[in-house]
Amino acid sequence: MNxxxxxxHAPYDGTDVxxxxxxxxxTALGEGLDVRLFLMNDAVDLxxxxxxxxxxxFDLTAMLGDIIGKGAAVRLCKTCLTRCGIGGxxxxxxxxxxxxxxxxxxxxxxxxxLSF
Length: 116
Fold this sequence. Notes:
This protein is of the alpha/beta class. The chain has helices at 17-30, 60-69, 78-83, 100-109, and strands at residues 2-7, 34-39, 73-77, 95-98, 112-115. Strands 4-3-2-1-5 form a 5-stranded parallel sheet, with helices on both faces.
């Protein structure tokens, strides 16, 4: 089964939305699902290595890197990266820059799509 998670929330916005999405991705990988994550809007900050606030309980970027290491495909919205000021490429290794056509292709090829 192909699972696509579309993340929109800023990683450290005072909620557990991004953390729960990453936990779900990790669990789905452990269950043998093909997992893809498309980060857009403020969620692209997950791919910025230095985005973790000192007071944060979790290192969400490290969690994302672990998920990539386990086989998840991660794409980052190019327009959102530019808007957030990280269009120059300072992003986590293994994530690819993509556009809306890539997202549409992933949606079409996925059995389930969830948005966080």
